[in-house]
Amino acid sequence: MRGGSNRLLTPPQTAEFLAVPLSTLYSQWRRWGLPAYRVGRHLRFRERDLEAWLNRHIVR
Fold first, then answer.
1. 46 and 10 Cβ atoms separated by less than 8 Å
2. Cα angle 14-16-21, degrees, rounded to a multiple of 5
3. Residue spans per domain, the chain
């Protein structure tokens, strides 16, 4: 298993994790290429996928 938490985050939790407004997350997550999952009608983001995405997009 990859590192990081396997926990699924709601969009408000994800916006807080990324420190962006919820409206920005909803309008940009596809363009940003954030991996997301549908659980029924609900959108969820896996915490470890967000951590990996951040690591790939951090300017060094």
1. no
2. 95
3. 8-57
Q: Which amino acid is at 59?
A: V
Best CA proximity match to 32, nearest among 59, 57, 4: 57
Instruction: Report DSSP state, residue 37.
Output: E
Contacts of 15 (CB under 8 A, 6+ apart): 21, 22, 24, 25
The model carries a pTM of: 0.85
User: Cα 58–6–13 angle (5° rounding)?
Assistant: 65
Q: How many residues are present in the chain?
A: 60
pLDDT, one tens digit per residue, over 35-58 is 999 999 999 999 999 999 999 888
The Cα 13–Cα 47 span in angstroms is 10
